[in-house]
Fold this sequence. Notes:
The complex is a heterodimer.
Chain A: E1 2-5, H1 13-21, E2 26-29, H2 32-37, E3 40-43, H3 49-58, H4 61-70, E4 75-78, H5 80-83, E5 86-89, E6 95-96, E7 101-107, E8 120-125, E9 127-128, E10 144-149, E11 151-154, E12 160-165, E13 169-176, E14 179-182, H6 190-202
Parallel strand pairs in A: 1-2, 1-3, 3-4, 4-14, 5-7
Antiparallel strand pairs in A: 5-6, 7-11, 8-10, 9-12, 12-13, 13-14
Chain B: E1 5-13, E2 16-21, E3 24-30, H1 32-41, E4 47-51, H2 56-72, E5 77-80, H3 86-93, E6 99-102, H4 104-108, H5 111-120, E7 125-134, E8 137-142, E9 147-152, H6 153-163, E10 167-172, H7 184-193, E11 198-201, H8 207-216, E12 222-225, H9 227-230, H10 236-245
Parallel strand pairs in B: 1-4, 1-12, 4-5, 5-6, 6-7, 7-10, 10-11, 11-12
Antiparallel strand pairs in B: 1-2, 2-3, 7-8, 8-9
Amino acid sequence: MTAIVDYGVGNLFSLASSFGYIGEQAKLTSDAEEIRASDRIILPGVGAFADAAKKLEESGLAAVVCSEARAGKPLLGICLGMQMLFERSCEYGEHKGLGLIKGSVKPMRDVIPAELKIPQIGWNALKFHGEKSPLFKYINEGDFVYFVHSYYGADCEDSLIATAEYGADITAAVASGNVYGTQFHPEKSGEVGLSILRAFCEIGGRE
Amino acid sequence: MITKRIIPCLDVRNGRVVKGVNFLGLSDVSSPISLAKYYSDSGADELVFYDITASFEERALFTDILCEVARTIFIPLTVGGGINTLDDFDRVLKCGADKVSVNSGALRNPSLIYEAARRYGDQCVVLSVDAKRVDGSFRVFAKGGREDTGLDAIEWIKNGVASGAGEIVLNSIDTDGVKQGFDLEMLDAVCSAVNVPVIASGGAGRKEDFVTLFNSIPKVDAGLAASIFHFGEVEIKDLKQTLRSNGINVRV
């Protein structure tokens, strides 16, 4: 069973539906025991970093997600959920992240030409980095995924597994061991996105 | 680089898809769910659902249909029509909508844009504007294009973006339903005034109209149309191939 962490931010209807569609059992939950009992964890998120990080912390689920991930359970952060995996964010002040992925979250405005619109809204092509990630088992480089964001994961070093070009190479996905993150929304990226979720469900956890 | 988007619009009334010519004379076309699935499979980048309902019962039927669509189609969904309050935002977002488009609701209560953007984020709030030329300027029209509000469209859109609208759908009443191409002059004026994505609506009659749109006004992000897609006059797959062979970056 996949636990989709429900900590009171964003709309999880499509995310939950996408698992149903690919035939994988998933449950929206804010229950620590259910998250511990799950085979893998999805950390969603939309909105502002500080607000979401605060809600995750106050719900007590930040600690649960971190301890499960450190024990080897596959974890996938999506959009703001990915950004929260980093060490810190500079979105409206400096905030601490979960620290599961090296790097920090910075405004795209600083690295892209002024004429490009912020947020980046729309479909962009993936460019793979390093060895092809198991997350991309069923897709190809150049496949399109759907982005909506104004900040990006910077200085992720070896954790970078994909970028998308938006005036600069912008972090599209990261991975460090069993911890994965996508800046884009796989649940809104058509067949390509569903294939990424399918691949995530096949990634083995602790043996 | 981010692609230009092609967006079919489904006007829904009584659980069915309809499309007006110059907003009048609606005719029933098809089931929203099968049409949405068809569009998604043929490469639509996003879908817009407009709820053209009058009664509470119809509204409930609309949200049921929206949930059903969101359970089977995994591309971005925008919902418009009858959005007057934050509760309306909540109602459609819970059914799987990603963005909510406001039009008359924002005209009646301009603070709706600000309040919704603050609660759900700018990316969630789409300002849809029906505009028409009156005495040499672009004027905002209300009530499905029947009533001149007296507002200058460019000023209204600038204010909307300043309040938090993350995207603009510009529907030109002058070109809507005429199928002679998008309103390039009006779009150019809007694109020069704001720096959020602008979606062109009204006037597409054939594939070449989209080529002209994206080539003439590179700042336009997306083209929206309804009847030409519903009646198969333009196939999205074919349209995207044409755009691509004309050097326009699209998802194929």
